[in-house]
Amino acid sequence: MFEQRRGLVLSHIPLGEEYRELTVGAEGMAAARPGQFAGLKVGKALDPLLRRPLSIYHQDRGTGALHFLYRVVGQGTRLLSGLKEGDEVDFIAPLGRGFSLEGLSPNTRALLVAGGVGAAPLYFLAARLREKQVPLTFFLGGRRAADLAFRGRIAAALGEDLVIATEDGSLGRQGLVTGPLQEFLDEGPGREACRLFACGPAPMLREVARLASVGGAIPLQVSLEARMACGFGACLGCVCPASGGDAPYRRVCTEGPVFFAGEVEL
């Protein structure tokens, strides 16, 4: 169940020119699940009126503090980037449906595929998978090295389990991140033992879904990026087309943002 809270900024770290890691105190808050998000109020006035939805990047086990990874791209995130240590933040969390870990064990391999800041919910997922002793490979892609300026924490935690690709070849493998994923599926330990999790741009998700369906379907969960205005499913601003079922659309903020690939049109 989500709560509305006021928490203090514990740290706010610039990561390159465009990215920030924000940590907000949330003592006593219920544990979030990987894939869930928070709605942060980013200004003291009514402009901007709506909260900004940010995926939870990490949650401290002891203190409950929430970590967020975000990119500064518009008015709301520019205001957010001005927060300093000790400032107070009004937020609602945890929101949405997270990743399902059902059926995962040390005998399965989790393949995590992230495009850019889509790494945030998958890094949180990777930490929980490590606790369950589930082997994993994390595929992280971006257009150029500057788009992955936040990779330090991920690289330190995952080591050789992290595969990086950039379209211009400035870091890691050259090309789309789905390239090394396809190689792994073609040459790896067997598709029947794999589970796929992805978050990133829509074209990347579609290609991951295609790869998951070729040569024996691999279960795939995707975290969708959408404009979640209210966060409660009331405004219907974040709906996406459903794939089958009774309802023609799904609300990303409440029925997602994590879906199994067969639940929505990618």
Describe this structure in words.
- The strands form 3 sheets. Strands 10-9-8-7-11-12-15 form a 7-stranded mixed beta sheet, sandwiched between helices. A 6-stranded antiparallel beta barrel has the order 1-2-5-4-3-6.
- It has 266 residues and is of the alpha/beta class.
- The chain has 2 domains: 3-95, Beta Barrel (Elongation Factor Tu (Ef-tu), domain 3), CATH 2.40.30.10; 109-223, 3-Layer(aba) Sandwich (Rossmann fold).
- The model has no long low-confidence stretch (mean pLDDT 92).
- Helix content is 20%, strand content 32%.
- It contains 6 helices and 15 strands.
- Helix 4 (178-187) runs parallel beside helix 5.
Keywords:
single chain; about 270 residues; Elongation Factor Tu (Ef-tu), domain 3; Rossmann fold; 7-stranded mixed beta sheet; 6 helices; globular
SSE pattern, N- to C-terminal:
EEEEEHEEHEHEEHEHEEEHE
Q: How large a portion of the residues is in β-strands, by DSSP E?
A: 25-35%
**How many distinct domains?**
2
**Class by SSE composition:** alpha/beta
Enumerate the spans where pLDDT stays under 50 for 5 or more consecutive residues.
none
Q: In which order are the strands of the major sheet placed? A: 10-9-8-7-11-12-15
Question: Number of helix segments?
Answer: 6
* End-to-end Cα distance: 28 Å
Computed CA radius of gyration, to the nearest angstrom: 18 Å
Largest sheet: 7 strands, mixed
Cα shape: globular
**CATH homology superfamily of the largest domain:** Nucleotide-binding domain of ferredoxin-NADP reductase (FNR) module
> In the CATH scheme, what's the topology name of the largest domain?
Rossmann fold
- The name of the CATH architecture of the largest domain is 3-Layer(aba) Sandwich
Mean pLDDT across residues: 92
Oligomerization: single chain
Number of strands: 15
- Quick one: CATH class of the largest domain? Alpha Beta
Q: Helicity range of the residues?
A: 10-25%
